[in-house]
Structures are given as C-alpha cells and as structure tokens.
C-alpha cells in the first residue's frame, strides 16, 4: 500500500528532497511518526512518501499535483493544507481567499478522482493556536477555522475521510500549554506532531486499513 502525504511545512518538516523510503525522507514531524509506526508493524506492507513543501498554499498543491501525486499513483493520499492560505495574506498579501481556496481544492479533488479513481483520500483539518507567529494578528488567523469548515464540506462532497484536529489540539494546549503543541502557533512541537500522527493512525486503521 503506497501512502502519500501532501501539504505544506507541517507535512514537510525538513524532509530530504532527493531520496524516498529512508528516515530523512519523512522529515521530523507527524509523517515520521506515522511512518515509524506503520513500518515497524508491517514494513513489507507499506510504502510511505512525503511530498510536503514548506510555504505551500492550496494553489501550490494544485500546480504540482501531477508530478508529486498522480505520477506516483498512491493508494492513499493524505492532504493537510490551509494555514498558509491565511498566513500569506496576513504577512504578504499573497494568501488565497476562502472562495478561491474552495474552488481550487475542489478542482484538485475532482481531477485527482478522475486520474486515480481508486485512491482513498484523507483530508486533514487545518489548525491554529495563539503563539509567537500568530498572536499579533490572531483575529485574522482565526479565519483558518473557516477554511477548516470548507475542508470538511469537501470531504463529504467527494467521499473522502475527514480528520478533525483543531479540537484535539485545543485540548492538548489547554493541558500542556500552546507551545508544547504548536511551537509558534502553526508548526507542531514534538508533542503536537505525535498527537497528529496518533489521530491520523486511528482514522487510517478504522476507515481505510481494516
């Protein structure tokens, strides 16, 4: 079973770009934790590929979908995107407004379903906390929660699995502090990455790999 993770820096997590199927190719985030569990349990069963790229918005995912997804023909595609579509607007006025986010994400899913009709897709909920990267404009960053609603709607529309994360992250942050979960309000700390991995694995085992 070939599993491809697709997204921004949260997925990228400083992965090596020039090699697959070795530890450094998974990065240091939740993908590494998922790979560690699956490849420990059944290394002969799974191939895991990380195609996250730091800074990506949904338009960037769509632009590279052929070379970084379709051509690799995954059995399972996991997508986590949304925070940069807000963040890039706050910081550089180069974000993706919510209507265009929905339209492009819908195109990405529709085209992928046509090219890979048997692929199983997991759409991960984008998330945010108040942290040193977000607190100055936190009211604007809260728009991420509206983008999350779009992702949930698209998951239902296209028959994808939806992985809710914001509530789990909120609960972890309330117990251990925001920085223990998302070190800057966006990027997971070790605990946050493990939380995402465990939630992902739970859904994967219940809904896809059963």
Q: How would you briefly describe this protein structure?
A:
It contains eleven helices and five strands; from the N terminus they run βααβααβααβααβααα. With 210 residues, it is an alpha/beta fold. Helix 2 (30-41) packs across helix 11 and helix 6 runs parallel beside helix 8 (144-158).
Task: Based on the model shown, name its key terms.
210 residues, alpha/beta, five-stranded parallel beta sheet
Characterization of the model:
There is one protein chain. The chain has helices at 9-12, 30-41, 58-63, 65-68, 83-92, 98-115, 138-141, 144-158, 166-176, 178-181, 190-208, and strands spanning 2-7, 47-52, 76-80, 120-124, 161-163. The chain has one domain (2-208): SGNH hydrolase (Rossmann fold), CATH 3.40.50. A five-stranded parallel β-sheet has the order 2-1-3-4-5, sandwiched between helices. With 210 residues, the chain is an alpha/beta fold. The protein contains eleven helices and five strands. The protein is globular and about 45 Å long.
């Amino acid at each position: 079973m070939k599993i491809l993770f697709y997204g921004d820096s949260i997925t990228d997590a400083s992965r090596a770009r020039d090699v697959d199927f070795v530890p450094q190719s998974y990065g240091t985030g939740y993908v590494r934790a998922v790979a560690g569990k699956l490849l420990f349990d059944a290394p002969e069963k799974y191939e895991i590929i990380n195609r996250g790229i730091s800074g990506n918005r949904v338009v960037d995912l769509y632009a590279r979908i052929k070379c970084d997804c379709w051509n690799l023909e995954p059995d399972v595609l996991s997508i986590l995107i949304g925070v940069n579509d807000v963040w890039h607007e706050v910081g550089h006025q180069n974000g993706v407004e919510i209507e265009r986010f929905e339209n492009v994400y819908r195109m990405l899913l529709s085209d992928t379903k046509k090219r890979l009709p048997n692929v199983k897709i997991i759409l991960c909920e984008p998330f945010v906390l108040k942290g040193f990267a977000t607190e100055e404009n936190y009211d604007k960053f809260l728009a991420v929660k509206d983008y999350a609603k779009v992702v949930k709607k698209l998951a239902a529309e296209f028959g994808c699995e939806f992985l809710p994360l914001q509530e789990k992250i909120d609960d972890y942050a309330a117990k251990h502090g925001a920085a223990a979960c998302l070190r800057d309000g966006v990027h997971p700390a070790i605990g946050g990455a493990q939380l995402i991995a465990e939630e992902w694995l739970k859904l994967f085992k219940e809904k896809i790999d059963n």
